[in-house]
Amino acid sequence: MSQDALVPAWEPGLSAQLKGRFGDFDLNVTFDAPNRGVTTLFGPPGGGKTLLLRCLAGLERAEEGQVQVGETLWQDGLLFLQPHEREVGCVFQDAALFPHLTVRGNLEFGRRRAGGETQLDGRVATRILGLEHLLDQGVDALTLSERIRVSIARALLANPQLLLMDRPLAMLEPEGRRSMLPYLEALADQLSIPILYIGDDIEEVARLADHVILLRDGRVRFSGQAATFFARAETANEIGAASESAAGAVLEGRIVERDPGLGLARVAVIGGSLWVVDLDPSPAEIGVGARCRLRVPASSVSLFLAPPSRSSVLNALPAKVHRVAMVDVARAAVELRLGEDGRGAGLLAHVTRRSLEALKVAPGRVMYAAVKAVALSERISGSSR
Amino acid sequence: MDQACVEPVWLGVLLSPVSTAAALVVSAPMAWLLVWELRGWRARVAAVVLGSPLVLPLLAVGLYAMLALASGPASCNQGGAWVFLSVAGKTLCAALYATPFVAPPLLAAFQAVDQRVWEAAATLRADRADQFWSVALPMVRPAMLVAGGVGCAQSVAAFGAMALFDARETCDGAECASMMNAGGLILMGSLIATAILRLDPARVRGGQRE
Q1: Average pLDDT, stretch A280-298?
Q2: B155 or B178: whose pLDDT is higher?
Q3: Residues on chain B touching A110 (C-beta within 8 angstroms)
Q4: Within an 8 Å CB–CB cutoff, is residue B210 touching chain A?
Q5: pLDDT at B94 over 60
Q6: If exposure means fewest CB atoms within 10 Å of the residue's CB, which of A5, A312, B52, B65 is most exposed?
Q7: In chain B, which residues have their Cβ closer than 8 Å to the Cβ of A113?
Q8: A317 vs chain B: nearest CA distance in angstroms?
Q9: Does the CB of B142 have a partner CB in chain A at under 8 Å?
Q10: Which residue of B lies nearest to A58 if distances are taken between CA atoms?
Q11: Are B113 and B139 in contact (CB under 8 A)?
Q12: B121–chain A Cβ distance below 8 A for any pair
């Protein structure tokens, strides 16, 4: 586990310590997750992500451990709450709707049993998830993405204090997955409970995650802010992503200027600002001020010793080299911090070893990071993080 | 048809739904418990016991049940080896006889439901009993129909068999012959019905899969 120095303090909403053998798999984890926002469980297949989620839901029992959600203890040496005794919400990959009930019946199932005030009003939840027109349908007639939305709403209406989502989008086509992301982002904004999310797709995780827990071989290898996680040189290797496109920093920013004529928007991030491709046709005044998130693939960042002139790159930002790590014999990953003082947001660049030596890239050196066009992700209008 | 012939038919038709209902009431929770509480070798033993009607001669279960009940004070012993049972006794016998036929389709249906559905129900605050009433029973409704049908046919067969024994012991001549005829016909008809109902395994699998 690594500690980040610049992490703002957050309140833990979930503290877990679980130790147990499951067949020949050994789970031994200790972590905290913030009480709001999406915490992504990430890591190579077979690392124990689903098992960990099932332990938290009470569907599996780790012999030793302690699970505390908010102020409530769910498990310790003596106590083990059964799944139905835990204020938990689960969203499974295949939705697992009740086929004998309508959409409304499914939604009411948990709400009736949980009782009390739900954090999200039923109408708000169905509106955010776009389910109003489906309430009286049987679940067999629903599309896959509708089924997933119903299962999310069903889990939320049971008023959970912890939301667990196991690859909710895995069965969707890439197109459907992209169309679901704004719903999830909007929900994450509205809820103030810990959300644990398993996602395998790096784009999906980069957009949703506020906090990342890297799990490998049943152990926590990293736990910290998403921005820190994605700006680390080792990340691409650790998540077992063979493709180069997997590496890339994630930047939080705010839209400060839009130019629909050129299809560009300027996004201010800590330590600088970037022009990004913005294909939203709405007028220039709309959307300015909205918070947004950018993923900058390491392969789209090049390094210069001086500001490049007359080139096709859209952005050239001063940045300080923070760390250099070899990816393989030929290539290195360079961790950068924006701004000449190196106090800005993290950026990650992949450069060849040859360039590394030619430019004498070393920690502490101020260089210019040229960032090719990256796209602004579409969001539900009006939502802000 | 004369009076002696009508009585067993009347009994069979009227009381087999009652004994089927009794068999269902016993079988459904039993099958539900088997799904959850029994693991490993105990599950296998239970499966053999439940499957026994397929292995044992068809009449064995009901016959032993009838003998057991007949030795009690409720029976009306007229000196012979075979006795008539009261109507309630006959109904109970038919229910006992039908139960092993009713439970397996329900067990199969519960087992065919995706495990995730139970897990979803559990994480939506439903305990086991709640899951049984609000998820399991409604989901296996098609299997309930099949189980009910098989159970009904088996009950009628049991009534027919009991009518045969009754006839042998209590009357003679034409009356006996026609009563045995009726009993035999009921028995045969319902066994054929059972065979047909059991033929289609897809109908026995009740729970719709995702």
Answers
A1: 84
A2: B155
A3: 124-125
A4: yes
A5: yes
A6: A5
A7: 124-126, 130
A8: 49
A9: no
A10: B123
A11: yes
A12: yes
Cβ <8 Å between B117 and A113: no
| Residue B75: predicted pLDDT | 43
Tens digit of pLDDT for each residue in A103-162? 999 999 988 888 766 666 777 778 878 888 898 999 999 999 899 999 999 998 898 999
Its CATH architecture, for the domain B3-204, is Orthogonal Bundle (1.10)
Write down the residue that tokens 């961790």 correspond to.
Answer: A335
Question: What are the tens digits of pLDDT across the range B29-88?
Answer: 888 888 876 666 766 776 666 666 555 554 565 566 566 655 444 444 444 434 456 677
CATH number, domain A12-237: 3.40.50.300
Would you list the domain boundaries of chain B?
Answer: 3-204
Asked if residue B203 has pLDDT above 60, the reply is: no
Architecture of the domain defined by A249-371: Beta Barrel (2.40)
The residues of chain A that CATH labels 2.40.50.100 are 249-371
Q: Which residues of A touch B135 (CB under 8 A)?
A: 98, 100
Measured CA to CA, the distance from residue B53 to residue B55 in angstroms comes to 5
What is the pLDDT at residue A5? Answer: 42
Question: Taking CB atoms and an 8 Å cut-off, how many pairs form between chains A and B?
Answer: 72
CA distance B123 to A95: 13
CA–CA separation, B190 vs A143, rounded Å?
Answer: 44
Q: How buried is residue A238: exposed, middle or buried, by Cβ count under 10 Å (0-12/13-18/19+)?
A: middle
Helices (H), A169-326: 174-190, 202-208, 226-230, 235-238
In chain A, which segments carry CATH 3.40.50.300? 12-237
Identity of the amino acid at A326: M
Cβ separation A158–B124 shorter than 8 A = yes
Give residue B204's pLDDT: 43
Return residues 46-75 of A near B (CB < 8 Å): 57-59
